[in-house]
Amino acid sequence: MEQEAWQILIVEDDQRLAQLTREYLEGNGLRVAIEADGACAAARILAEQPDLVILDLMLPGEDGLSICRKVRAGYKGPILMLTARTDDMDQVLGLEMGADDYVCKPVRPRVLLARIRALLRRREGAEGERDEGQPRRLQFGPLAIDSAMREAWLGEQGIELTSAEFDLLWLLAVNAGRILSREEIFNALRGIEYDGQDRSIDVRISRIRPKIGDDPMHPRLIKTVRSKGYLFVAEAAEALPHGDAAPVVRN
């Protein structure tokens, strides 16, 4: 996919901010549409399937969290949430509803563009991985993860993952047996330094565990290693019952 073909939908009721953002992004080769009404946003996202959605939290008609939850199962592209700078809970809730990343207001155009490009290029990473001799598909007993299809299965049952959740699961699985620090994970997935406070990795881990058959209270597949990071345990995944297909988890 060429960058010029990327279609962005901005869901934002602040007309001045939306228009300035649109002009900046279009000046950098992206195609941009704007939706100001939260009540119409979900239907438009599902109907148009843009390459990426920039979604404000505070909207007339329907708030961003509700929209994110409503479209997540039917929209596989990245959702970039706009949040208040000081409201950490908004960020956590956005991630829990299935947002892939967030940018704090006031929005800095260069930061926004960098996040957009990182999210979109991440979806194209499977091709580069194959070129570099990286595995396309990982299999741990009944758990299968395919980087080209960007899908995962537990037995015969497909696992519903957001784009960001898939990237995190793949990163952990391809490094099975090695502890990955939050700094490593953060840099690999978002391309920026970890600030020591961001909770997005922890939130996504907590969402991934039940989806892949791990016990959130006593995890065996994705272990938290105190003061070090996270560890994907291949042997635990391979020991999952083959007939144990987890129910599809809706976002």
UniProtKB/TrEMBL annotation:
<dbReference type="InterPro" id="IPR036388">
    <property type="entry name" value="WH-like_DNA-bd_sf"/>
</dbReference>
<dbReference type="InterPro" id="IPR001867">
    <property type="entry name" value="OmpR/PhoB-type_DNA-bd"/>
</dbReference>
<dbReference type="InterPro" id="IPR011006">
    <property type="entry name" value="CheY-like_superfamily"/>
</dbReference>
<dbReference type="InterPro" id="IPR039420">
    <property type="entry name" value="WalR-like"/>
</dbReference>
<keyword id="KW-0238">DNA-binding</keyword>
<dbReference type="InterPro" id="IPR001789">
    <property type="entry name" value="Sig_transdc_resp-reg_receiver"/>
</dbReference>
<feature type="domain" description="Response regulatory">
    <location>
        <begin position="7"/>
        <end position="120"/>
    </location>
</feature>
<keyword id="KW-0597">Phosphoprotein</keyword>
<dbReference type="Pfam" id="PF00486">
    <property type="entry name" value="Trans_reg_C"/>
</dbReference>
<feature type="domain" description="OmpR/PhoB-type">
    <location>
        <begin position="135"/>
        <end position="234"/>
    </location>
</feature>
<feature type="DNA-binding region" description="OmpR/PhoB-type">
    <location>
        <begin position="135"/>
        <end position="234"/>
    </location>
</feature>
<feature type="modified residue" description="4-aspartylphosphate">
    <location>
        <position position="56"/>
    </location>
</feature>
<dbReference type="Pfam" id="PF00072">
    <property type="entry name" value="Response_reg"/>
</dbReference>
<protein>
    <submittedName>
        <fullName>Winged helix-turn-helix domain-containing protein</fullName>
    </submittedName>
</protein>
<dbReference type="InterPro" id="IPR016032">
    <property type="entry name" value="Sig_transdc_resp-reg_C-effctor"/>
</dbReference>
